[in-house]
Amino acid sequence: MVVDNMGLDHVAIKVRDIEQTIEFYTDVMNMAVSDRIGDSVAFLRTPAVADQAEHHEMNVTQYSDEELEILEERGELELDLHDFEEELPEDGPPMLPTTGPIYHIAFEVPDYNAITDTVEGLEERNHPIYRGPGRHGPGNNIFLYFPDPDGYPIELTAKMEEPIEVGGRPPKQWPESSETWNVWRKTDDLE
Ligand SMILES: [Fe+2]
């Protein structure tokens, strides 16, 4: 072992328009700005009600002009998040559309109601929803996926299974199937 007693602390992402990103993470995700550096970096924390909230769980950094030019050359500067939504396969693993190597950023919420409330709020804003609500096999957690303004998928997760250290079960090998990714699969049937 080289690193001892480690926990995941924060994630840092580069964004196309930092003001739009801050608006999303404060208005939609109920986060707060802890500090800023000039007009190109912001530190964001989860709400004060989250008892583990620290100075920041996220750092958002504006792409430089040079980086924005590269995105523009690649035709990736303007995003239509609803386009991605339409390309989603009906079945199978989450297969989230992403705009970079980060597959998703997960935030914990207390329960299923917090997730259905979010679905309502996102629908009111006509904000795309990529997957869910559903329940993963591994972890047994309830999930919902939707994109942030740069297309980084956000996952809301609730009721994650305890790890073996606190009374959970030993590792299990899951089959590669859509039921593994979502044990509810046909969530419409639940309504
Ligand atoms: Fe996840």
TrEMBL record:
Keywords annotated in UniProt: Aromatic hydrocarbons catabolism, Dioxygenase, Iron, Metal-binding, Oxidoreductase
GO molecular function: dioxygenase activity; ferrous iron binding
InterPro entries (alphabetical): Fosfomycin_Res_Enzymes, Glyas_Bleomycin-R_OHBP_Dase, Glyas_Fos-R_dOase_dom, VOC_core, Xdiol_ring_cleave_dOase_1/2
Pfam entry (one): Glyoxalase
Residue segments, region Disordered: 165-191
Co-factor(s): Fe(2+)
Record bears the keyword Cell division: no
Domain VOC, chain residue ranges per copy: 7-159
PROSITE patterns per the UniProt record, alphabetical: EXTRADIOL_DIOXYGENAS, VOC
Family (UniProt): Belongs to the extradiol ring-cleavage dioxygenase family.
PANTHER family, alphabetized: FOSFOMYCIN RESISTANCE PROTEIN FOSX, LYASE, PUTATIVE-RELATED-RELATED
UniProt-recorded name of the protein: Glyoxalase/bleomycin resistance protein/dioxygenase
Species of the source: Natrialba chahannaoensis JCM 10990
Lineage: Archaea, Methanobacteriati, Methanobacteriota, Stenosarchaea group, Halobacteria
